[in-house]
Each structure stands twice: as structure tokens, then as C-alpha cells.
Design goal:
This protein is of the alpha/beta class. The protein has helices at 2-5, 20-29, 45-51, 66-73, 104-114, 122-131, 136-148; strands spanning 11-14, 36-40, 55-57, 78-81, 95-98.
């Protein structure tokens, strides 16, 4: 539906997983391959997240995906399922939740609304991330302190 409505959309799937073959087959069956890129595993995640307009994760089963913290650190809005722990929301107004049992209309509204939430307020994002102990420099210093003991 989304591809038919908005030909500017392009979906990028990062990583791999047990449903990858099934997902690729569904893309082929629906003849939407020109709107989808399967990127696989990459060290370029921060660059990809910075260039993305939305991080979409309608997962069936997740705990605390660190990639969602990374997406928020990049200012990228995220639309995720309620199956993902709400603790992943860093409080920078970039996370929206929807239930997998919600109808398609609810997902579509939240999907398009999420695009307007992209943030360039990296001062606030950095401050919030540090306050929640998601700061690489602070983490390295704490780790060094632990190893010194």
C-alpha cells in the first residue's frame, strides 16, 4: 500500500535474520524490489541512520534493541511495535509505538506522522543520552575505572 501511495518511499532493511528469505520472497512476489534495499550487516549503521527519515521496527519479539538508541542518537524518528520494551524510549520525542494488533490505518497515520519528528537538536539528544548512561566516552571511562580495580 505505501509504495503505491508514495513512490518516493524507499525501504532499507539492515542486518539479517531468520525471516530474511521470506521477506525477500514477499518483496519479489509484490514486485516492489525497486523500492527496497536489503543492506545486510554493515559498519555504516550511524551513516545510514543519519540519512534515514524514519526507523521502522514492527517486531514480534524484541527486548531492548540498542539500534533504537542509536537511531535516536542520530535524531531519527522511530515507529516501533509495542512488543519492544518502552525503556528504549530515551525521552527525546522520537519514538512512536503501535500494536501489531492495530489496524493498518493506525499504522499508516503513525508512519506518516513520524516523518515530521526528525530532530537536529543534538545538544538535547546528547545531554539526554549522557543522563541515561548512553555515552561512549563516559562508558569507556567507567570501564577503565572498573578494570583498574
Amino acid at each position: 500500500y505505501l509504495v503505491k501511495k508514495d513512490s518516493l518511499l524507499h525501504f532499507v532493511f539492515l542486518g539479517t535474520g531468520p525471516m530474511e528469505t521470506e521477506l525477500k520472497q514477499a518483496v519479489n512476489n509484490k514486485n516492489i524490489g525497486s523500492y527496497v534495499t536489503f543492506y545486510g550487516i554493515s559498519e555504516e549503521i550511524p551513516k545510514i541512520l543519519h540519512s534515514a527519515d524514519l526507523f521502522f521496527m514492527p517486531s514480534r519479539l524484541e527486548g531492548f534493541p540498542v539500534v533504537l538508541v542509536e537511531a535516536q542518537a542520530c535524531g531519527t524518528p522511530c515507529l516501533i511495535s509495542t512488543n519492544i520494551s518502552s525503556e528504549v524510549d530515551m525521552g527525546v520525542n522520537l519514538i512512536s509505538f503501535a500494536s501489531l494488533s492495530d489496524n493498518l490505518e493506525i499504522w499508516k497515520k503513525k508512519f506518516y506522522k513520524s516523518f515530521s519528528r526528525k530532530s537536529n537538536d543534538f545538544d538535547t539528544i546528547t545531554r539526554v543520552m549522557k543522563s541515561k548512561n548512553f555515552d561512549a566516552v563516559d562508558s569507556v571511562l567507567k570501564l577503565q575505572d572498573i578494570y583498574k580495580k
